[in-house]
Predict the structure.
Amino acid sequence: MEIRLTIHAREKLSQRNIPLELVRLVVLEPELTLKDRNDPELIHYVRGFEGKFLRVLGRWEKEGTFLLVSAFFDRRLRKAREEHDQDSVR
């Protein structure tokens, strides 16, 4: 799989210290896949790592080429998971 990066994605991966191999893993083996609310071509891939959830946003351009738009550790999902886990214990 080839990953092409937008300028924004390149900057954010660097700022957030997210390795490209981690992005590749999330896209190839996501725990959750969501459509974007505003752009029907954009896909959100999510996977958990050590209590954090990495969200990768992008779209497939052609067979085997993924255009990465952005990636970040989604704190909202971590909080939702923690609340869910607390409710399950009760």
Summary: The longest strand covers residues 52-62. DSSP finds three helices and five strands in the chain. The chain has one domain: 2-89. The mean pLDDT is 87.
